[in-house]
Amino acid sequence: xxxxxxxxxxxxxxxxxxxxxxxxxxxxxxxxxxxxxxxxxxxxxxxxxxxxxxxxxxxxxxxxxxxxxxxxxxxxxxxxxxxxxxxxxxxxxxxxxxxxxxxxxxxxxxxxxxxxxxxxxxxxxxxxxxxxxxxxxxxxxxxxxxxxxxxxxxxxxxxxxxxxxxxxxxxxxxxxxxxxxxxxxxxxxxxxxxxxxxxxxxxxxxxxxxxxxxxxxxxxxxxxxxxxxxxxxxxxxxxxxxxxxxxxxxxxxxxxxxxxxxxxxxxxxxxxxxxxxxxxxxxxxxxxxxxxxxxxxxxxxxxxxxxxxxxxxxxxxxxxxxxxxxxxxxxxxxxxxxxxxxxxxxxxxxxxxxxxxxxxxxxxxxxxxxxxxxxxxxxxxxxxxxxxxxxxxxxxxxxxxxxxxxxxxxx
Length: 411
Hints:
GO terms for molecular function: CoA-transferase activity. Pfam families: CoA_transf_3 (PF02515). InterPro entries: CoA-transferase_III_domain (IPR050483), CoA-Trfase_fam_III (IPR003673), CoA-Trfase_III_dom3_sf (IPR044855), CoA-Trfase_III_dom_1_sf (IPR023606). By secondary structure, the chain is an alpha/beta fold. The protein has helices at residues 21-31, 68-71, 87-99, 119-125, 150-156, 181-204, 214-220, 223-232, 266-275, 290-295, 297-308, 313-322, 333-338, 340-344, 386-394, 398-406; strands at 12-15, 35-40, 55-57, 63-67, 78-81, 102-105, 130-135, 209-213, 249-254, 257-262, 327-329, 348-353, 357-362. The chain has 2 domains: 12-220 and 343-406, Rossmann fold (3-Layer(aba) Sandwich); 249-331, formyl-coa transferase, domain 3 (2-Layer Sandwich). The chain contains 16 helices and 13 strands.
């Protein structure tokens, strides 16, 4: 806990989303200081609570009901368990929305209309509301009605077509990224869009609807590969760990494993040549300039691999770093958290949990000098804050809360 001023301490967020993309956006806003109220279904809550093992356990080793997956994206939130399929539950959520600045949801397009919780309905009650919808394919277009999942989007959006070993190589074929990358990127785009809409509201006095689609994000994040196609008119292909625009920029075998060389310009290549005792390559017309190295990629890579296998990964990194050549190991996740730089940056944190004692979490990468990220709430248990939030925000007393609970409106 810290009393430091928080960048978004004046912002209230109603989080109706679940799984990853929407909750990632809400967690980012929460880390920046917003009050985030997570509305969950009684009994089950966010789908990812059950996405295990592994699960969070108490000091006796008993599961607490939260999976490790759920813990990755629900920090700095308060859980309120409301059944908004019931009219009285809908009324409670509408009352909360009237007091909030932001609402995030990731139901299928039009899915909240039947409950009166869509943008058109809620903006009439709260014209200043910034309402962010996250879907697979957006609010319009021929696929708008479809459900969207990260794996599906990585395929449809082109990412898998450029990820994996090239045709003809062992293990060739399209490959997804090892985390739900389009979900996470969509969450980051969502938080950016929400901050932009809040800033715009300072000038217009009005909120607005944000329409974010996983497929749109997947296409946007093709980055240089998309531009390579649009300008070069050649369809990018899978290249394993090689880079389409610069050489050498990939993994190389060593005496005890692999390392990465990430040479980004001709000066770095010249320093690499000096380090590996091949200074003549820096002046060789086949290799001196990046365009030439691209044209002679196979010959250069073969020559480098014959050299890199002669030393261990650690020996190469020590040598190449002294020469100013960008390089590094390929760490396992365990090795990531043992890395001195990761430790120095405090990327592993621990927070108090009501059942588990202390739970480990991954820190936010955002660093602000005046209004730093704060860690106030561990990912909440289902319905942990129902009574507190509804008492503070809606003025409900113990009798009213119990009445709602008896009707199954509250969990």
